[in-house]
Amino acid sequence: MTIFIRDNYNEMSKAAAKIIAKQIKEKPDSVIGLATGFTPIGTYRELIRMHKEEGLSFKGVTAFTLYEFLGEGFDIIKPYGLDKSSARYMHEEFFKHVDIDKKNIHYFDGFTDDPRRTCQEYEEKIKAAGGIDLQLLGIGRDGHWGYNEPGSSLGSRSHVVALTKQTIDDNYEDFYRKVGITKDEMPHFALTMGVGTILDARKLILVASGAKKAEIVQKALEGPITAQITSTAIQLYAGEATIILDADAASMLSNIEHIKHTEAMSKKYGFRAE
Q: Using CA atoms, how far apart are residues 123 and 272, in angstroms rounded to an integer?
């Protein structure tokens, strides 16, 4: 696990985009897992800039989104502000701006009548694609990955999850209240890649920004491994994990000076230290 600390959100986003771009340049048919939420938007905007200004192509890329709300799905008729599906988010914030082939974009079907079967099929699609080469992740305020809420098994595969009160409250304040949707009307369940599914990816990038994430980032990276904070599973990850934080999100880590020293030495001697 390698941690990078950047001065601000923009620098954090650029660093994450640079790693994703490197992956695609080295393997144009990469399979990429993509997260939604506020934090990755800057990364997507930088990738869009690279596509338009530097010729970064996504033609060969296959994409899998991390989760979807049960009862939600892409509805182009709705104004974007009223469509809170992950599918619509990824379309508006990223996919429609680059040259990715639509047939290579995979979403959970939030309108499914058989959520468990849908999750099984998603696992099968990931396997058929050859597995995920690189998974982009954020982190929830309670430490969840995707929507693997507290108590989700650290070995879980894609599954249906009931959202916690904390998540519902956060989603309401961040999205639904602004458009007049009540808590009773908003989604209370989600389909999500499991923690085990995430850990199967060959590489992970986790991005976090802001002082509100500082405490949970510290717990995820330095605290005990527990299903009550599913992102602590990153401590078990055997592949190449890159954690990119802005200064605020990193502020409660106990070893900030060593993290900065490690990056400086890695640059000086030309190899990745973990």
A: 31
